[in-house]
Every structure is written in C-alpha cells, then in structure tokens.
Design a protein that fits this description.
Elements: H1 2-31, H2 41-49, E1 56-61, H3 65-81, E2 84-89, H4 92-100, E3 106-112, H5 117-123, E4 127-144, H6 159-162, E5 165-167, H7 174-185, E6 193-195, H8 199-211, E7 218-222, H9 226-229, E8 232-234, E9 246-253, H10 256-259, H11 261-269, H12 274-285, H13 290-300, H14 302-308
Parallel strand pairs: 1-2, 5-6
Antiparallel strand pairs: 3-9, 4-7, 4-8, 4-9
Helix pairs in contact: 3-12, 3-13, 12-13
InterPro entries: ABC_Gly_betaine_transp_sub-bd (IPR007210)
Keywords: Cell membrane, Membrane, Signal, Transport
Protein name: ABC-type glycine betaine transport system substrate-binding domain-containing protein
C-alpha cells in the first residue's frame, strides 16, 4: 500500500512538472516578441490560400462597342468565379463619377490620355488606377478608302457632298470633342459641324454610305469592328489635334482591394490584344447577345482567362 502511494506521488510530481513546462511555453508564445521579419507571415499565407470569390460587384461602362465587349467579358469571368456581378451602362461623364463616388466598383473603359482626359482630371484623386487593359487605341476622323483624300487639310474637297458635316457619336464623347477642336483648328473646315448621334447611328450611316459608295466622314476609333468590316482609313492629322495612340485603362473605387481582394486582382490582371478584342465585337455586331459572346470568348480562351484569374 505504501509503495503504491509513493508511485502515485511520483506520478503527480511528473505531471505537475509537465504542466509547468507547458505553461511556460504558452506564455512565451502568447507574450513573447516574434523574431524580426516573421510578423504576419501566418496571416499572409492564410490570405493567399483562402481568397473567397464572393460578394456583389458593379461594373459601369459607356455603350461603345469596345466597352460593351470588354465589360461583358470581364464581368462573365468574375461571375464564373462566384461574384454577383451587375453591369450598368451609363453616360460617359456619369460613368467616371459613379466610380469616383463609390456608387460603382469599377470600369474597364477609361480611354487615356486624350479621349477621357477631362474626366480623368476631374476624378483622378478619388480613383484607384490599375493600368491599361488594352494598348494601341486610336481616335480620329475616318473615311472610306475610296475617298480621294488623305488628310484633314484636304477634307474640304468634299464640302458639298458631306454638307460640311462630320458624323459623330454621343455628345460629350472625347472623339467628338476632339473632332470639334479639329474643325476649329483647321482653317479649311471653317463652318463645318460635328453632328452627334450615337455609336450605333454612326455605324449605320457609315455602312449605308459604303453600300452606295458615297463619301462620308465619321468620328472613329479603334479597336472597332468597322475596321474589319470595311476598308477605311484615318485622315492624317498634322496639327496633332487627336494626339498619339491611347490606352484603355481599368479604374476602381477606393477600398475595393480591401473589400473584394480577389475581384480587385482579377481586374488588375485583365489585359488583352486587338485580335481577341475584335473577335468579341464582331460577334456582337453579327447579332449575338453580348452575354453570349462573352461566354463564348471565355470558353474558347481558357489560358488567357487563367492568367486573369491567377490571384494570390
């Protein structure tokens, strides 16, 4: 009986010592300072492995063929990941204001530095710039190749046939404003006007004129399906009113990276080339619904989509 008692006492002592050692180790982990450079490493690893693609996301765009195509494509990609995505068409100026005022989450429709230069200046302090999603965009006055004119300085040769007017798109669009500046800059266009309408109306007028091989001058930009459909040319702009080549850039609201880090990274990764861009626009122009055209693109370009959705 006494032997058993000592054994129990010995066991109790061992257990007590074990608890003391464990408690000391816990105190060191909880209260001790982490070695320099290791703070937050576990949190970062968890974040890298556990980005959840969920939440509501609104992208806004102006109803140009380029922006209809790009917004629907990246919207479809984000929706496939699990986000509840809303795509909202807006007037050009309102689109910029919506993102700057946190009323919308982002856009992939910023033409810089010229086309949307004014809107950028007004709103840049309240936006997060993610850089270009397309490079090599251009704007200018466009005519059919069969017209015997190569420069804006020569366009007055067609004053009677054109009624001294250039067919434009939506009022306030950068290419419209630049065309109005060209009318003021080039003395041979004194008295001319830029007749605004819509992107669709401009394209219809262009197609009808080409069908009848009639002269027409339109506010043009590329990428755009019309350059694949018709034989067109930009008029030379020696005064550089329309500027150099542009980029189409992605802008998001402040705080999106913290609120939806996965969506932020996908939008940051979004970039494509002209052939890919034109393919979606051409399909939409042929009558395919933009959502269906976007779904077709995503299905047919898995490697590119994987690049966009590679988030950490």
């Amino acid at each position: 009986m006494l032997q058993l008692t000592w054994k129990r006492l010995g066991l109790i002592a061992v257990l007590a010592l074990t608890l003391v050692i464990a408690a000391c180790g816990t105190d060191d982990e909880d209260g001790g300072e982490e070695p320099e450079g290791t703070e937050g490493e576990e949190t970062e690893e968890t974040a890298e492995g556990d980005i959840e693609h969920e939440g509501e996301l609104e992208l806004v765009y102006v109803e140009w063929d380029t922006e209809v195509a790009s917004t629907h494509v990246i919207g479809h990609v984000l929706e496939d990941l699990g986000y509840d995505v809303t795509l909202t068409p807006l007037d050009n100026a309102v689109m910029w204001q919506a993102v700057a005022n946190d009323e919308a989450d982002g856009m992939v429709a910023a033409w810089l530095p010229g086309t949307h230069g004014e809107q950028y200046e007004e709103n840049q302090d309240n936006l997060v710039e993610l850089g270009p999603n397309f490079e090599g965009a251009a704007i200018g006055i466009v005519v059919p190749e069969y017209m015997d004119v190569d420069s804006i300085e020569e366009l007055d040769q067609y004053a009677d046939e054109l009624g001294e007017s250039i067919t434009g798109i939506e009022p306030g669009a950068g290419v419209v404003q630049a065309s109005e500046d060209a009318v003021e800059t080039y003395g041979n266009l004194e008295g001319w006007s830029v007749d605004t309408s819509s992107s669709g109306a401009m394209a219809t007028a262009l197609g009808e004129a080409i069908s009848n091989e009639e002269p027409i001058a339109v506010t043009g930009w590329d990428p755009h399906w019309k350059f694949a459909e018709y034989d067109l040319k930009y008029l030379e702009d020696p005064e550089m009113v329309f500027g150099e080549a542009e980029t189409i850039e992605t802008m998001v609201r402040e705080g999106l990276e913290e609120d939806l880090p996965g969506a932020y990274q996908v939008l940051d990764n979004f970039f494509w080339e002209e052939d890919e861009f034109n393919g979606v626009m051409a399909e939409i122009q042929d009558g395919v619904d933009p959502e269906e055209a976007a779904a077709n693109f995503v299905e047919n370009h898995p490697e590119l989509v994987e690049e966009w959705t590679n988030v950490q």
